[in-house]
């Protein structure tokens, strides 16, 4: 449970000092890191390595005598829950959903020509995996674009198809939430952009 304390004294009359706390199981109060970071219960976030999830709870647990606050993040597709310390959210890379401006950049990225690479597939695989795990939406768009272009020139291997599917799934999930559309519609729109770009390049 979150509490909001407001303090007014002689010097601060007319100005409110807001302090947010989380109530621990024993009744003690712990200042909320989650609130300071701007994350709220029920908010959708991006967790690198897992994709889009929803914060279903913000809990405080005692670990080795210290009170620690955790995000409980639920991933609907994989039916998985992750507990992440709120104090490590930045270092983990947990972020808010991107802006509409970033979605516009995604579309521009998908419409660009994929760079030609002489790198062998093993090295490319590591690069694509790193981009997917980063959780950055433009990096995901680059993976989708590059692998779609590869499929137009040669038959895709199983690993290529898996990487493409993972990147497209995470990209479309975020686009759908930002634009308030279904994932099916998001996928259709993204793949249409890819087909149009491929047609122009042919």
Give structural notes.
The model is unreliable at 1-24 (pLDDT under 50). Helix 3 packs parallel to helix 5. The chain has helices spanning 33-37, 89-92, 100-110, 121-134, 137-153, 158-179, 183-201, and strands at 2-7, 17-23, 29-31, 44-47, 51-63, 66-75, 80-85, 95-96. With 202 residues, it is α+β, with helices and mostly antiparallel strands. It is elongated and about 60 Å long. It has seven helices and eight strands; from the N terminus they run E-E-E-H-E-E-E-E-H-E-H-H-H-H-H. It starts with a strand and ends with a helix. The protein folds into two domains: 2-96, Thrombin, subunit H (Beta Barrel); 100-201, Methane Monooxygenase Hydroxylase, Chain G, domain 1 (Up-down Bundle). 24% of the residues are buried. A hairpin with a 5-residue loop joins strand 2 and strand 3 (29-31). The longest helix has 22 residues, at 158-179. It has a five-stranded antiparallel β-sheet with strand order 7-6-5-4-8. Strands 1-2-3 form a three-stranded antiparallel β-sheet. Residues 38-148 form the CarD-like/TRCF RNAP-interacting domain. It comes from Bradyrhizobium erythrophlei.
